[in-house]
Amino acid sequence: MTRMASPPASKIYLRTPAEPGKKAAQKTYIIYFLTGNPGLVEYYRTFLTHLYGLLSHDTASNRDVEFQVYSRSLSGFEVDAKDIKTYKYRKDPPYGLQDQIRHAEDDVTELAESVKDATGSDVRVILVGHSVGAYVSLEIIRRLRAHGLAGEDFETRIAGVVGLFPTVVDIARSESGIKAAPFLKNGNFALLVSIVAGFLTMLLPLALLTKLVAAITGFPGDASHTTAAFLKSPFGVQQALHMARDEMFQIDTDIWDEDVWGAAASEPKSKHPHPRPILRFLFAQKDHWVADETRDALIRTRGRYSRGDVVEVDGVGENWKPVMDIDEREGWPHGFCIAHGVPVAERVAGYVRGIVARDAERKYK
């Protein structure tokens, strides 16, 4: 059975199965990927698979380090209603942005603990977030570090964060944000659109709807199939618009302090038992969800531009600030996962290698 003949998965977990009698890696890095909106993980299968292949190739001759790549659909975007964890979340969809952050934080800590219990290795997490997933990643850091400072640390070691085409401030000022905000201000908009979408797609078989989506959007077959399944899913359309409304009104000002933005800085000193995560960001040259002035202001105030592979000498400049790249050559779009998953995975693999190299020099209590 081909992938397109199967319903889109709600979870993708790529790892090397344990071999009997073979010693587990001393250190395991979980690449935990957080999707954008709409939050169906199947859109990112090519990206995640290629990223895993690149990282696994790096460790083929070094069993001291192992990589795992994990991602799941955001809550409420599951194509099969049986996959929605209403019993755990104590409410039915749609879920707001704060719900998504809580669910993701719980999932990250539970996954890290389960991998540690299963392997006995030193488990560290690198969060990779696309679009609103980058915002969720930074919020996970903030919350976990707040737990640690309160003496409630769950030993979840976040080594770094990679934000891809991140919408972390002022999303309503973007080109698409300006267009969408008037509709999303209506509290009933998400429900009304979902009812209309359900009526229009109810009688269309999935295969026919997939062809229709491909004809209208120009998406390749796998993305068209995922989109068709999204349109026919029990809560997907309402979930996407409900969450988008929260994004418009909650993703505005920079809400994080130096304990998040400080990256590997030794100053100001942190009272948290773990080093600050190492941050990397990749922006598009033109992004309809991120205004140029918003991107440039964020880089100017919180980050620094990269200079290829040149590493700054310690103590020179502001080398502690997170590196923020602008893609000025490839022309990758905000929705890179549709047709540019492979080259973006290659860029991200380089970011991950850099984070791991720096993380190897640091100590966790």
From TrEMBL:
**Cross-referenced SUPFAM superfamilies:** alpha/beta-Hydrolases
Write out the entry's keywords from A to Z: Hydrolase, Lipid droplet, Membrane, Transmembrane, Transmembrane helix
**Membrane-spanning ranges:** 189-209
Cellular localisation: Lipid droplet
GO terms (molecular function) for this protein are: lipase activity
Report any one BP term from Gene Ontology: lipid storage
Which cellular components does GO assign to this protein?
A: lipid droplet
UniProt signal peptide? none
The record's listing under InterPro entries reads: AB_hydrolase_fold, LDAH
Q: Which family does it belong to?
A: Belongs to the AB hydrolase superfamily. LDAH family.
Protein name according to UniProt: Uncharacterized protein
